[in-house]
Design a protein that fits this description.
By secondary structure, the protein is α+β, with helices and mostly antiparallel strands. Strands 3, 4, 5, 6, 10, 11, 12, 13 and 14 form a 9-stranded mixed sheet that branches. It has a 3-stranded antiparallel sheet with strand order 7-9-8, with no helix packed on it. Helix 1 runs antiparallel to helix 2 and helix 4 packs antiparallel against helix 5. It has 3 domains: 171 residues, no CATH class; 71 residues, PGBD-like superfamily/PGBD (Muramoyl-pentapeptide Carboxypeptidase, domain 1, Orthogonal Bundle), CATH 1.10.101.10; 206 residues, L,D-transpeptidase catalytic domain-like (Beta Barrel). The chain is globular. The chain is 37% helix and 15% strand. It contains 17 helices and 18 strands.
Length: 549
Amino acid sequence: MAQAQFESAQKTIEIIREEHSALQVETALFKALEEGQVEGQRFRDKLGMKAFYEARGYEEAWLQSSFLGQPKANKILKVLEEAWRHGLNPQNYHVDEIRTLMDRNDQKENFKLDLVLSDALVRYGQDLSGMRVNPKSIGQSAKYWRTPLHAEDILRHVADTTDTNAALYGLAPQGKLYKTLQSELERLYKINASENQYDPIRVKGILRPGSSNKSILAIRKRMGFAADDSFEGVYYYDDQLAQSVMAFQKAHGLTPDGIIGPHTVKLMNMTSEDSINQILVNLERLRWVEPEKPSRYVMVNVPSAMLWAIEDNQVELEMPVVVGREKRPTNIFSTNITGIRFNPRWTVPPTIKRDDYLPKLREDPYYLTDRGIELVDKDNMTVDPGLVDWNQATWSDVNNMRMVQGSGSANPLGLVRVIMENPYNIYLHDTPSKSYFKRTDRALSSGCIRMSEPQKLADFVLSHNNGWSEDRKNQILANGRQTDIRADEPLPVYILYQTVWLGDNGQIVYGHDIYGHDAKLLKELKNINGVAIPAMDSGVKTAKSSINS
């Protein structure tokens, strides 16, 4: 009897000790959450972390055994160490601090490890689901892009699953382009820098097949031909070399004409580091776009100058477009298409008024009249341009007047304009200049996006309207009057800037950074220590240093 009472007392003492220890841990964890930091690490989202643990009764989340018996903490650390696969820097997710706390193996400090893991997950999850840099620093507006996941949602997403790896991988975009770029990034990281270097190719002007030039030797080497200056014809651009150059051009999204110009030379001179940097910024931009899109949407990629109309995950329409030239770039944003304007009138945008038409009007007051453009004052009265002293007119004077061209074949908007609200006055529209669509370099407009097949896009946008038909469209076009048809089902349009994309055969195409956006974004990512080079000496390890300029 005494022995039983003793054992019962011992168990009671153990329970009290466990409860006391648990209370101490709960108190320490609560205090750290209130302070918003632990082990010198400040939490990115103190309130989100607090809400997560409060809902759990302040219990630890990551140190219990999970699916297949392995603690979630181990799986989380492994995924964080491989954050470089997404173009992220593992050091931003406390990997060293987590290892240190794991090595201590101090039960009294488990709450610290749990909190550091939680903050690392929040940082990782938010970096995978939104913009990491200040949008203003790269000329962007955050309202057009994905908002990073909330801290509490990230933590619950990982804590509530039995498959930790799947939950963590599911935070990233799942599209084909994203995954292909990830694979290419890993391949490039494994390349020894000295293995992917070529003699620099320097070409003044252009080289055509049949010409001779000293740069041909370097081009031969770049195309994989054994070449030195000891044999005859080494500087001659022959048919065999032309075939290789054309194959190279086709694989990189250029016109395969064998003519070696600035774009071809730039791609030939790309190093593995150049390719890595281009992939890093393109992975970043892919994370800005909402992963869950509606059943119908339109997408334009500015660098490739292509448009796609998607319905039920199928490409219903694909067409080349013309985009803004370097000095008048097409803005990058997303908005909704709400309808189609047929036979549109054209109101000259401010940039063209100021930079193009005002200088012409100072030379010839009737420059606009000769082009069928009417001058209208702020009271909506027609103004005789010959009565305006254009040499004395200020920009404010000009800005208070509208320049309007009526509907017709000479109208720069053609016969179709997509109605899509945005603060940039950027539109999708028709054009009378059809020859531009045959060019590879289609960065030629003043900012708007010209479509090669505008009536097909109009039909796509209005296809869900009751009673819409080819006959009705033709009647509207034939009457010549500006007519707006609202879409019964508005759909989003995404104007994107991806300088790396997939070609017709699924190959990676390194395109031209038309507006220099890649360089700006890479600079900002480096400023926040956001990218890193992984050590690849014996398999893939964690990142060891930031990429240098």
